[in-house]
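The methods section describes the discrete structure representation at length, but only in general terms. An entry of this sort, consisting of the sequence and the corresponding backbone structure tokens, reads as follows.
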Amino acid sequence: MRTDSAIAKVGGASFRFKVHREPQWCGSDGWKGLALAVEAVDKAGRNLIVELPFEHFSHRSTPHRQRPSISVAEVEGYIREALEAGWDPESRGKPFVYELPAPPNTSLERTRDR
């Protein structure tokens, strides 16, 4: 991975992560959220792609310019969830795609001025 990555530690293992995809518009699926690429630091294996749901923060800003800030602690939690969902970083194969569910109340209604 490139040098614009960070390290997360989960269960004694170290994982390197970076932004895989910025929030963007997709013609077939609508808005797609931020995606992170995760790989084990110590040995080669199956990578993880964590896809976050797209959230509209404000109707006054262009949605694709709204990149959410993600902390290392949040990424460590995402890695734990992916491990529980079946990701095996020591296996081989295509990247394991873990889609985070959209939190409740993510409709555009909450972003309107009241």
Q: What stands out?
A: The chain is about 10% helix and 30% strand.
